[in-house]
């Protein structure tokens, strides 16, 4: 008599992000008190519109002048420094937030923040971009947005939620599914 194999299915992952990856100050790319700080908030939702309470988001972006800063110690921010990197786990309602600066444009495209999303059921993170609603003229010339069908572009554009606040919900599937990028 043989013992049945107890292998873990390859499509199973997490939720384990809360143990090792979030860290204190992770959502603060810049401190919220900085005069140029903006808040980006949103929710991660599944195909049924239900919150994903155990996802992890990372953002990567240039600074306000469009300069990409890649220096060691992105987790450590000295006072009011800018690292270009942030990480935030979602809460019970699928909510996340970042305190950052609005990025400047790079490479002739519209300003954007690169977003990576890790979640249960995903073997690899999915990638998307967050564009800003006030940059419509730049959207028309953005090479990536030009490749996205017109009816889907809105899933990449945040909504203004206040003077220095934006809302960007990410839908993993279904109606209004966020556009995800392949690299």
From TrEMBL:
Residues 37-174 form the Intradiol ring-cleavage dioxygenases domain. Keywords: Dioxygenase, Oxidoreductase. GO terms for molecular function: protocatechuate 3,4-dioxygenase activity. It is an enzyme of class 1 (oxidoreductase). InterPro entries: Intradiol_dOase_C, Intradiol_dOase_core, Intradiol_RC_Dioxygenase, Protocat_dOase_a. Its EC number is 1.13.11.3. It holds the Pfam family Dioxygenase_C. Belongs to the intradiol ring-cleavage dioxygenase family. This is Protocatechuate 3,4-dioxygenase subunit alpha. It comes from Actinomadura chokoriensis.
């Amino acid at each position: 008599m043989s013992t049945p194999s107890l292998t873990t299915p390859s499509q199973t992952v997490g939720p384990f992000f809360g143990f090792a990856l979030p860290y204190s100050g992770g959502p603060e790319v810049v401190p919220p008190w900085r005069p140029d700080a903006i808040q980006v908030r949103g929710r991660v939702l599944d195909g049924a519109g239900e919150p994903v309470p155990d996802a992890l988001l990372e953002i990567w972006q240039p600074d306000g002048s469009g300069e990409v800063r890649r220096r060691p110690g992105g987790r450590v921010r000295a006072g009011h420094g800018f690292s270009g990197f942030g990480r935030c786990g979602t809460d019970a309602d699928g909510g996340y937030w970042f305190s950052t600066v609005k990025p400047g444009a790079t490479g002739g495209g519209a300003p954007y923040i690169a977003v990576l999303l890790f979640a249960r059921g995903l073997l690899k993170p999915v990638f998307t971009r967050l564009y800003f609603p006030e940059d419509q003229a730049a959207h028309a010339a953005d090479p990536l947005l030009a490749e996205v069908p017109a009816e889907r572009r809105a899933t990449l554009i945040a909504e203004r939620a206040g003077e220095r606040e934006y809302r960007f919900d990410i839908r993993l599937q279904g109606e209004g599914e966020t556009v995800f990028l392949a690299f």
